[in-house]
Amino acid sequence: MSLLTRLSPAGANGFGAHSTAEEVSAGLDLSGKTYLVTGVNSGLGAETLRVLTLRGAHVIGAARSLKKAEAATSAYGELATPVACELSEPDSVRATVQAVKDTRRPLDAIITNAGIMALPERTVKHGLELQFLTNHIGHFILVTGLLDSLSETGRVVSLSSSAHTNPYREGIRFDDLDAAKGYSGWGAYGQSKLANLLFARELATRLPAGQTANAVHPGVIATNLGRNMNIPGFLDAALRPVLNATFFKSVPQGAATQTYAASHPDAAEINGEYFADCNVARSSKYGRDADLARRLWETSEALVAKL
Fold this sequence. Notes:
Blueprint: H1 3-6, H2 21-24, E1 34-38, H3 43-54, E2 58-63, H4 66-73, E3 80-84, H5 90-102, E4 107-112, E5 124-125, E6 128-129, H6 130-145, E7 150-159, H7 185-206, E8 212-217, H8 233-246, H9 251-254, H10 256-263, E9 274-276, E10 279-281, H11 290-306
Helix pairs in contact: 5-6, 6-7, 7-11
């Protein structure tokens, strides 16, 4: 057991930092339910796909290409449907929306798991910094396009991060969404994760009774998300085992919070919250700013209309 899990006791629901996706879903029968999960080709998305199908659910698994989605879902037979979703391409996301609608399956949850992190250099696409575009705007298009496909008790689970506490000083740089005035890989990532949290907060106020939207922090996990981190090879080889044992969660532990929020009966009526270690947690001041959340929503709508 790592230092992280030793210092993070279970919450009131019996789950905590050490809990795995299998453990939080133990005993659940999800037969007849359908979940849309983005980024199923690796890491937390792949584990979430595996565990939800293990419990009998049907998962519509999205990846950047149909080939990757097919490879990720092929082992699950009729319990999984692959779809392509390149989140940085609005037309691709809209095609995904239509593909999901064409399945005619009501969605019991949408889990916006995919994302990119801490790009070392400023990258702009469609006039937006790439992390903001991919992590927030792409998922904004996807979720809002599928709201009429949510079941009456459908849930939206937005993958945020504790990194939302370290965005740019302004929180969301509304006047510099292409990062032309200055770029920080971690600042841009923090901004995008704050946007994921604010999106869930605002969506929660717009959903009809019975449906919910929440954001989650999965924990610090060694996955492909960190592939852009510039760590020299010799240091990575030396430090990775130590970091994994001391601070990082395993992938099964990292997938637990989103699995819990999307499927567990105890989370069914929780709305507009931020989860960490499978329990409701306190976010940053920016993350609780309802006016900021509303402004981001309105800004996002205006941006999407032009994309």
